[in-house]
Every structure is written in structure tokens, then in C-alpha cells.
Amino acid sequence: MKAWLKFTGPFFGGIIFAIGLGVGGMTEAENILGFLDIFGQWKPALIFVMVGAILVYAVTYRLILRRKTPLFEKEFLIPKNKNIDRRLLLGAGLFGIGWGMTGLCPGPGLVSLSSGSEIAFVYVAAMIAGVLFGQSKWANRV
What we know:
mainly alpha
């Protein structure tokens, strides 16, 4: 199989995902912050975007796992660790704090870079720092 073919599907899947985030309003921090503000000026419209994404994922995931192997790999790489530990809780908490402060999470943050938004650049830089820290020897001390 040609090497470029292995990356074509994920590339176009990422493009479709980015377009969906933009059309669904997930790249606009005001929409996210309004959705998270359940005791204030709550904007419930993103429920439809999230439920739609969950439904597509739930159906597609099950269909894909019916195959013996993935299309472009030798085996499925599904995490086996299902433990809820301190590192997971700390990471989830930091993710939630960042999401609540900026209205961005990784997908929309990357898509928002195309707008030239200063907060998107700061967010993505912090996200990259977090990923690098998570892979460092220092993260094992947490």
C-alpha cells in the first residue's frame, strides 16, 4: 500500500471535522461559555451538536470494530487501561478549567488558529506544553 494512502482518510476526516466544528458554532468561545453557564444566560443549542456527534461516534465505532483489522494498520490500538487515577483526574480537571476559561478545547482550538485569534494561539501553546509535560518524566511524579 502506498504511504500517502494511509494518511488520506484521516486528513479528509479532519477537514470534515473542522468544518463541522465551525458550522456547529463550536469554534466560537461565546457559544461554549454560554453553554457552560447553566445558572446564568444558558445557551442550550450546543446540546444538539454534542448529541449528534455522540450518535455518529457510537454507531461508527461499533461498525468499525466489526472488522477484523483496521483499513491501514495491522491491529486496533484500543487502550486497555481503564483505571481512574490521580493523573487522569488532574488532567480532566485542568482540561475543564481551560475549557471554562477560554471556551476552547483541542479541536476547536486548532481550528480557531485559522482566525488569527490571539486566545487561540495562547490556548494551543498551553495545550502543546501540557502534552509535552504529560509525556515527560516530571508527569510521573504527579
